[in-house]
Amino acid sequence: MNTDQFLARLACPVVPVVVVEQVAHAVPLAEALFSGGVSALEITLRTEIGLEAMGAIKAAFPDQLVGAGTVLNREQFRSAIDRGADFIVSPGAADALFDTAAKYELPFLPGAVTGSEIMTALDRGYRTLKFFPAEASGGAAAIKAFSGPFGDLTFMPTGGITPDNLATYLSVNSVVAVGGSWLTPRGLLREGQWEAIYQLAREAVEMCASLRSEVQQ
Ligand code: 3PG
Question: Which residue in 103, 135, 145, 194 is a FRET match for 36, CA 20 to 30 A apart?
Answer without folding.
Answer: 135
